[in-house]
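Reading a protein record of the kind used here takes only a little practice. The record below shows the convention in full:
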Amino acid sequence: MNAEQTIRNLAIIRILIGVGAWLAPNLAGRLFGLDPANNPQAAFLGRLFGVRDIALGLGTLQASGEARRQWLQLGVLCDSADAAAAVLGRRGGYLSPASAVMAGGVATVATGLGVQALQAPDA
């Protein structure tokens, strides 16, 4: 897969995850091993996460040149922070091991894809 396709796939995955989190935040939370039934505010936080990923994906798809590079860098920053949040959540005892691995794993993979995309000469 070439760099352009990696960038496009990453952006589309972001948008799909964001739309899912926005439209069905409790389901998205359960898929990551969270317990939204015992935390009704989780839907609000899920939607905040969802719209962020939608914006990052759309910004990446619509930009080119240096602007696209900045969108990719912002995505790497957010994904790295998400991975760190999973570690902190596990250490703090409010994320189960499975949830921390799932959320942290997805964020780590996204970080890696973003870093890979930034290596492209035209990113």
Summary: The mean pLDDT is 93. The chain has one domain: 3-118.
